[in-house]
Amino acid sequence: MSSVFNPSAGHEPAVTSSTATKRAVGRQFGRAAASYDAHAVLQLSCARSLLAMAPESLPIPRAADLGCATAPLSRQQQERWHEVRWLALDLAPAMLQEASQRGRTGRLFSPVCADAEALPLPDRSLGLVFSSFALQWCDPAVVIAEAGRVLAPGGHLLLAVPLRDSLRELSESWKAADRRPHVNDLPTMVQWHDALATEGLSTVTQQTLTVTQHYPHVRAIARTLKATGADHVQGGGGGLTGKRAFRTMLDAYETLRTRDGLPLTWRVLFLHASKEVL
Q1: Which of 100, 143, 186, 247 could serve as 2's disulfide partner, Cβ 3.0–4.6 Å?
Q2: Average confidence (pLDDT) over 46-59
Q3: Residue of 68, 79, 66, 218 whose CA lies nearest to 146
Q4: Is 20 buried (19+), middle (13-18) or exposed (0-12) by CB count in 10 A?
Q5: Angle at 48 between CA 188 and CA 274, to 5 degrees
Q6: Which residues face 89 on adjacent strands?
Q7: To which H or E segment does residue 80 belong?
Q8: CB-based contacts of 38, cutoff 8 Å, min separation 6
């Protein structure tokens, strides 16, 4: 099994609200490590589509996959550029351990337990930053600043991220039941573009995709979100929910049912940006 490098080992940072949130996210994703591959159908499809947008060559042969989870795309990533050494970064050690157990990490695809908003990497050290369905938990300004910092001149950023209004059916159904947040308020496309402009990263190509999945019942939706670690809600959406509120939510969701089942919609931004060559 490949070892997992933890840059914060032996040092416990001060607990801030941001730190506490990230720890909660890390724990949530860690608990989903064993079930992730079986349920991350949309995540894997988006990662493959993002890789298809990749450039033919990189300015330097080093790359990082931010929020790699179990690294399900590692073989395809290595096949795309045979000479490139990859860093598989994730906030959840359990995800990286699962990747190692599945034989997806090694000499050319090294696991690193780290925060995407504070990368333990030198300036201008990467030719590519790749991230699919991971950075929606981050502040776009902070994480794009870090990506810009570690990219070499001429380096590339490949990003697939769900946008605000994703899971809107679930969100609206809960609003009929109570006023607590049950779905995260994700960043907008404007926020991502503003962050890119601030860091001098130029958009090469982009597209947005709306994907609607269908489920037989709400519990199947909840099971899928939990199995992929996507059920953490920032701002206190967790905890017990009364039976009456839950039933009200179920009834509201049922009004949206189609012949295919209960809909759940994602809005996803696919983006290829590059760093200016000095």
Answers
A1: 100
A2: 96
A3: 66
A4: exposed
A5: 55
A6: 66, 112
A7: helix 74-80
A8: 227
Q: For the ranges 118-122, 231-235, 237-241, 248-252, which has the lowest average pLDDT?
A: 237-241
Q: Are 97 and 32 in contact (CB under 8 A)?
A: no
Among residues 114, 115, 116, 96, the alpha carbon closest in space to that of 106 is found at: 96
Q: Which tokens sit at 164?
A: 């605000």
The span from the CA of 95 to the CA of 210, in Å, is 27
Q: Are 130 and 50 in contact (CB under 8 A)?
A: yes
Checking DSSP bridges between strand 126-132 and strand 151-162, what pairing results, if any? parallel
How many Å apart are CA 96 and CA 87, to the nearest integer?
Answer: 11
Q: Is the pLDDT of residue 265 over 90?
A: yes
Across 121-125, 174-178, 237-241, the highest mean pLDDT is recorded for 121-125
pTM: 0.87
